[in-house]
Amino acid sequence: MSSPPAGDVQRLLETMQVGVPEGRVPARIFNDQAVYERERERVFGRVWCFLAHESEVPKPGDYVTRYIADNNVIVARTERGDLKASLNMCRHRGNMMCKSEMGNSSHFRCSYHGWVYKNSGELIGVPYFKEGYESKLDRKQWGLVPVRTETYAGLVFGTLDPDAEPLEEYLGGFQFYLDIYLKQGPGGSVVHGPPDHWVAETDWKICVENFSGDGYHTPVAHQFGFHLGYFPSSGATHSQGWAAHIPGKGHGIGLGHTPGMPPFAGYPPELVAQMGETLSPAQMEVFSKTRTAVGSVFPNLSFLIQPFSLVPGEPGVRFCTMRLYHPTGPGRMEMWSWCLVPAAASDEYKEAAYKAYTLAFGQAGMFEQDDFENWTRLTRVAGSSVAKHLEFPYVMGIEREPLSDFPGPGHVVSPYVTDTNFRGLWGTYTDYMLKES
Ligand code: FES
Ligand SMILES: [Fe+2]
Question: What pLDDT is attached to residue 2?
């Protein structure tokens, strides 16, 4: 694929910076080599990127391997019980050492010349240390490259930027909404089952936009779900609810509300009572009115709570999914998908929630199929010769004033169907892409 000159991308982004507040976004950002390359440096080189949930690595020695942009990262629980993240790159000649995506090991041994590292990153074994290096190699200098991490409510984030603001500031108040997914009772929420992941010819950003509160697509793209009875139709009132985003941070959430539908997205009363122990009254007030909560942490981590029936027509169970859109090239990504359950729920409930999640999301999920069919075509078209010079309208709700009496933080508007969160998302994205250092 040929790359447009860098100045061309600069102009595109400068035009976008003016266009976004006026409700215009260029198609080209959804499939372009030069845009992708700049994202790798200026977005993924600076942000806090989700790496793992603590419940994925509960015991000393447990590890998973994940990505920040094209950098493979080992997240390991050390023998002392703390979490350490390191680049999965042997310091001798750069071999990728750990080839499994998850496992348990106190050490990693490189398969090329045999250097050995503790899972905390220290280099402790060098073949022919005396004979070859004459004991002069300073092993302390050649440990694995550490990745800076911080944790919020079980989520482990990493950043490649030593000067990145603390995670708490980065989240900027979005914790209020994240807690609805992550603090579902004593012990919080935990991952149930391993993540599912697959490759898609899709730009990561359209997924983030969708999961920042695109309630607009649901009655159309997922209409089978209403017709087959997998979830109750929100009908003529579907647009009701709220869209909240944190200005300048890029995080956004859509909270769909349907009058007459069960409160708390239909979670059973015993689980709601447990949530009341960990969520504040204001959070409970917001969650009580929620049918669907679909939100994203900038740049590429999303969550969704959704009612879904295992048997069409029956009330069924509610599930929560966590998702990561890992870019692997222009218009290409690896999609990662997890099921989150309340730690305090019964095993029976967790299994039922997992079933509902796999019916709806993950690579065989029905909702997932609907979404990716649209996202893949959209990505392909965005890279075509005419489309890439066009813009899309992001004007929905552009004159709407934010609410002053909503219990949650951020810029909040009603109804839920609006482009307001997306203008916030694209504004932040453009700021990152234009900022030089
Ligand atoms: S590349 Fe790892 S020991 Fe040589
Ligand atoms: Fe969808």
Answer: 47
